[in-house]
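User: Fold both of these, please.

Assistant: Here is the first one.
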Amino acid sequence: MGKRMMFVVALFFCTVKALAQEEELPMEMRQEQGAGREMERTGEEQMPAQENDEQYQELAGYARRKLNLNTADAAALHGLGLMDALQVNALLQYRETLGALVSIYELQAVPGFELPLIRLLLPYVQAGSGLEPYYTLKDYVRRGKHQLELRYGRTLEAAEGYRRGKDEAVRYLGSADKILLRYRYRFGKYASWGLVMEKDAGETWMRKGAPWLGDHLGFHLFLQRMGKVKALALGDFTVNIGQGLIQWQGFSFGKSAAVMQVKRESEVLRPYAAAGEFYFYRGAGVTVEKRNIGVTGFMSIRRLDGRLHLREDTPGAEIPGDMGGEVYEEGTLSSAGYHRTPSEMTLRANMLQYTAGAVAKWKARRGHLAFNAIAQQYAHPLKKGEELYRLYALEGKRVLNASADHSFSWRNVHWFGETAVDGSGHPALLQGFLAALGTRADVVLLYRYEHKAYRSMYGNSFGESSAVGNENGMYAGLQLKWGSKWLLAAYADVFQAPWLKYRVSAPSGGTDALLFLQWLPDKKSSLNITYRYASSPVDVKVPPLKQRIVMNEQKHLVSMRATLPVNDRITWQGRMQAAFGNGAESFMLYQQVQARLGKWRLGGGYSWFDTAETEGLYLASMGFPGDQSLARFSGRGYNGHAQVQYRVSEGLSLWCRWQQAVYPGSGSIGSGLEEIEGERKTGVLLQVQFSW
């Protein structure tokens, strides 16, 4: 392992001197660092990654109409996703003590605001008059900006599910084209409405009786700051409550090198304009505020995908035409959102979900206290499965949750947390503490206790697993800064699962730790190194024993990322990842070049990977801009891509990307209906964006 590791590191630094790429977005690195933790778990209780570009849309909106730092509240500042709770608290205290910012450059005087953070914020924020402007309903309609977006993607090689002659019962019903059409109108933080239509690869675009509609159709109308009505949501919207113990549908990160960003904070109601088909509500919601009291109420009626099962109870009961007993229907929810085959079509819109909830929040000068409740009712009882680890999974027609959450600041200390209970009385608790030990040192502690039987439908809290329940743990993080060029961050997390989990057949525990070092020699160059250690439980079969036993797999991951400008127009970025443990080794080397030439932006990248068959390494931003996609590379091969962006005019831009993965010597790529014969997989992505 040592020689291969030295070779990869040497190759990485040699390429730094030769080429050039664009500055990284912080969210890309955080996605990659948390990827293996969530995506390698495929149990029923672990939902798949959300198809949600909410964060990208939020920042894109602020790039057009900047956020006013003198009027933004804590939720809006957190919504940028660029600051931790201590930095948000420091800005609010600075405003309270010294008044509104006179200039954006005054941010340098705010404690905890170093030049790298200020550079990240500059494209999205401004320092206005400090007075909240008054807009009429006519302004809401006329002063905003319209945007029309069309996305197209396709894999050029034909997968097994598209081949002619395949049995109609198991082949895909539609074409390999992936299409998204999205219209959205935005007027800053005051108004948003839009329409989304999407067809995944393998699905049919046309619906019976409505040939102009996609497989998925979404719409929303969202208004804010209309007198006492702080927010009004109609159509599709998300609900985010507390620290996610009972409800969190918005975009969020887990453990990463941003060790201080552990707190969830958002407006309760948010518009939903993404293409995901599971993590949102459809109905109406309203937030009303008077002085320091705010009340939110929402209702939703949705048809979710699910598999219906027939069960027999009360043997001997007489039913006309049935000698076996009384028959009831049960359902198992499906969050994938695919409708490609006849069997997947049978799952469509089978489960009717009714949701109602309320939040009452009292706001203090430097914090808040809130009481929350949410209930879901289903037309058919939820079925939890027969496996022993699913003993405490959701079942029945009703899911009830209630909680109280708080957030308070005092000087350089910030407390936050949430205490929750489900309909059966099982508790869950999350409490966090952040403190600025000085101008260069910050610390965070976070404790969580989730009863083994605690369950919530859309819970998503900070922890080893975002799914809430069956986890206890303590997280500690430290961040140190030397000037504006050096940053050292580290965390350690010790966790336990008091009950069984998917692929873990006994109560278990583990450890996760990370060390991160960043150097910023100038405004456009950066180098960071990350080391992560994970000890996670998993079932292992040890010969000659016939049964499986639980053992802790130890893994080490080392990654390096560098950004280097060649000149004012060309930038290079390189990444290296190496993972080893349990006798398996994985390596990846990636580099990308981007050039800016007038209205053109040209880019190209190449990655080489060599991993164990059961392991995988991840790269972010390998798809459409802002789609939060993560590409998994497993086996041995290489991947190349080239992309072109042309800005035709101020409101019209075109984007094209070609990419190809090659697995030398492989007879096929993928499995099942996604299997492609040969050693190559080629994809084309196109996007047209028009604003006016």
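And the second sequence with its predicted structure:
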Amino acid sequence: MDILVEKNGRYEPKPIVLDRRTEGQKKVTTTKFVLLLFCLKKVSPVLLFLAGLVGGGEGWAAVRLPKLVGDRMVLQRETELKIWGWADPGEKVTVRFRDTPYYTEADGTGKWYVMLPPQQPGGPFLMEVNEKVIRDVLVGDVYLCGGQSNQETPIERLVEKFPEIPVSNNHMIRHYKVPSQDVTDGVREEIAGDAVWHSATASEVMNWTSLAYFFATEVWNRYHVPVGMLVASKGGTDIESWISQERLKDFPRLLVDEEAVCKVKESRQDKGSGRWNQKDFDDSDWAETEVPGTWDERGIRTKGSVWYRKTFDLPSSMVGRHARIYMGRMADGDSVFVNGHLVGTTSYFGPPRKYDIPAGVLVQGKNNVTLKLTAMNGHGEIVPDKPYVIRGDEDSVSLCGTWKYKVGIDRTGVEEYVERLRQQKMVGSGLYNGMIYPIRDWKVRGAIWYQGENNAGRAGEYASLLKSLIADWRESWQMPDMPFLLVQLPNYMKKHDRPTDSGWARLREAQLQAASEVPYTALAVTYDVGEWNDIHPLDKKSVAQRLFLGARKLIYGEKVVCSGPIYKGMEVDGDRVVISFTEVGRGLASRGGDLKHFAVAGEDRKFVWTDAVIKGNKVVVSSKDVKHPVAVRYAWSDNPSDANLCNKDGLLAAPFRTDNW
């Protein structure tokens, strides 16, 4: 294993001495020790007492860590790092990293965190959190990758195109795929699933997503700094799913019906859970009813759950002894408690209810039976002419007659709110809530966003949504200048003989608009690396290389050209149009032969293909069919793969139009 050290502005591997402690020297936790004792056939009270002594003041509960904190993780270099988790309230927590301890304790809600000072790149290291040991930790640059299916294309699809993948042998770049979790009823504090970090060695590289692999490889090959790719993506998703509700207020149709959410959530909460089943609960203000009988017969109007309680005197012959309780039949589901102890439950209508009461539950004098009866359809019933009795060996106690009751759940009238939520199929924020919000404290160097296919039919609002997403994530990570590397949609679908309008072209335009208006962003133009018959093109390597050009300039401060020509303005000169550009680099050029995919239109708004030539750093277009041109479009189609205007640095011009039709 190597540690990285700075040398001439680069980070190079240097051998390190490994931690020589053996596994036998590691601390044995209290929990493991006690579990071992319980595995023995006979456990003496003395041993259990000794187990308590070994535990000291640490208690039984171990600290719990976020799922991101695990073996092979990568931490962002040169910034404060938050390590957090959960434990029993007041439990003391020690985090040890690179020979330095950091102390804290869990607050009243069980949350804790420590802040590590900025770390220099390197590794692998150990991190210890109380008794937990996290191994093979690297410090380097972490990138957050978001979007839909082209962001999460599995690397296994690319092995034939890129044979270097199956023999990858890079342990210094790592990958974590955040499991899908789509929830619209509020943010989550933890991600779903049990994903782990993977390195890019041959035995693990097939767990990677493809764009992340090629980008991480580019970073490592140039800077020799460990790289972590944190991928939060899901195929077939809209951009609004990845934006918080707060940032979607300008899009009312995307907002969650908070009233309906609250009403439905309240309707699912049972007021009696954990309280009304207790033996000595005060039910003096409850109403009375007769058992058996139906809810309708007894005037109980509810859809949900009703709690029944009956207190009775116990014959002395039954005190402390095993008995059985017979509760006839009920509709629909029941839970039966005797003196606060759950003795039986049945979830559906039909079976006879016969439950054992363990020895020791029944006591001298007053005893209590509590029944929770659930019928979401409102037709609750305690069926007549069935036994309702507690039977011992010598005596029995009848349970028929007067009981106290109170409604625990009432979903009457909630159907309206359930239906309102059912109709909310297009609201936003579900993936932000479940996949972005839980990882907001994991420091990153920048973000890579590859998405847009699902929004191509609504391109008019995409620029605003993309700007909202960038602002949203920057706020979530508390990084006002968080760099964003954006992938413009590639070419896709069949070519057309004549110029046509295109939802994909308009989406590309929106992506360019956002990149032009939002600082600290870079756009990778990719309309030459797609496949007309596959929405998931395989050439993710070229995409990664263009993104990395943006990273070199935007993130690493290199003086490189990372953009092709971008439309600046036009002038009509008779029957010609002269177009000017920014980002020309060392000058305009054609990527092979005459310029292609320029179209011009007159006042009739009918576009035709046109001749185009480079004049210095400008392009002049004209057509014999359009004597009075008013508008020009370039690479304006679903699949403009033959468009070839670039700069002399080899970077393609971004698609554009001069009209607003």
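Confidence is low (pLDDT under 50) at residues 1-11, 14-60.
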